[in-house]
Amino acid sequence: MTTTTVQFLFDFGSLNAYLSHKMIPQIEARTGATFEYVPILLGGLFKLANNRSPMEAYAGIPNKLAYEHVEIDRFVRRHGLTAFKWNPFFPVNTLQIMRGAVAAQTLGCYPAYVDVVFAALWEREKNMGDPEVAAAELQGAGLDAEALLAAMQDATVKGRLLANTQEVHARGAFGSPTFFVGDEMFFGKDRLGDVEEEIRGESLRAARAH
Amino acid sequence: MTTTTVQFLFDFGSLNAYLSHKMIPQIEARTGATFEYVPILLGGLFKLANNRSPMEAYAGIPNKLAYEHVEIDRFVRRHGLTAFKWNPFFPVNTLQIMRGAVAAQTLGCYPAYVDVVFAALWEREKNMGDPEVAAAELQGAGLDAEALLAAMQDATVKGRLLANTQEVHARGAFGSPTFFVGDEMFFGKDRLGDVEEEIRGESLRAARAH
Asked: Which residues contact A133 (CB under 8 A, 6 or more apart)?
């Protein structure tokens, strides 16, 4: 077992981040590593990196877009992610709920917040870009929606999300999900096997160094 | 072991097709499957599919382009592909050497031709878009360069390459390397593990059907 910490850069609006989120507990259990969830604003990262979402980039390439869906279906089936549903409101503006993730870190409800928002978007077909819907979902899950929504307007919270996004861009990121094991960057849910291999490698190197 | 045939759609100009080519013998040995090499013209497929090469698509996205290189380096290192060298003439026009692949199928030297051309491009830094260079490489490897170069001008050969390209586009392809196991399509060298899993699944289903 290892004490490695993996940084997981995510935006709730990224389906592939949701699919990764569902796999992370198993990887933590197998390796002993801890995944640190780093909230970023994907739209902001796209602007900084001059990148676009796969759905936008492949919109004019019908075969590629169709294949992207095939690969999502395969991943969902292979890993038995039976709760997954396409969100009818996609793409959802995630600015407020990503600020909420930063707020939840200081309000002491971060893991629950992340679970609730990912599930609302990718299992319960909720329009989490709508503050009223978001408030109802958070409240319904037993979180302090009022405190969370208020904190989304906090300048420190806004600044932290922006700073996270700028920092990961400076480290080489261009999309979500992105993983860092030390300085090694991995992009996409399809690299989770490589992330796990890298964790084991780090762990071996650490053991040898002792 | 299985008798499954996998179709491997390739263009010599695709580095990821070369990297896949180097892994195929091991997959054949492990599974008993046969990979049928289907020559296509990648430039033509891109036009049909409205797609572009990764190098072109990522040219304006520096972080993504850098990551693409990191992933190639990782693949090369992980699989010990020590002969690989970046080709200084890249991108090379592959129209003639892809026609040559079709010609080699009828001239009875297909596997040797494929090996020689992939190696010339991705191990020996040759400008295989230049007919004189191509002729020298083929001749040097003991192939009948004169017959091959003559056959590249054959209307049937030209038509076959075009037909292959149109057929794979109609089946859903948009780039190289693409693999078909039955009707299941897989794109990219990073799907080779999934291709192998699909071969094993096919083989199990065939065994149960008997």
From this structure: A120, A126, A127
C-alpha atoms less than 13 angstroms from C-alpha of A50 in its C-beta half-sphere: 9
The span from the CA of B179 to the CA of B7, in Å, is 5
Contacts of B57 (CB under 8 A, 6+ apart): A57
How confident is the model over A196-207, as pLDDT tens digits? 999 999 888 888
Cα separation, B171 vs B185, in Å, equals 9
- A-contacting residues of B 148-207, CB under 8 Å? 169, 172-175, 185, 187, 190, 193-194
Quote the pTM value. Answer: 0.94
Q: Which pairs from A154-157 meet CB under 8 Å and 24+ separation?
A: A154/A103, A157/A99, A157/A102, A157/A103, A157/A106
Instruction: Say how many domains are in chain A.
Output: 1
**B44 within 8 A of B162, measured Cβ to Cβ:** yes
Amino acid at B138: L
Mutate to test the interface with B, among A50, A63, A194 (most CBs of B within 10 A): A63
Chain A interface includes B22 (CB < 8 A): no
CATH number at A146 reads: 3.40.30.10
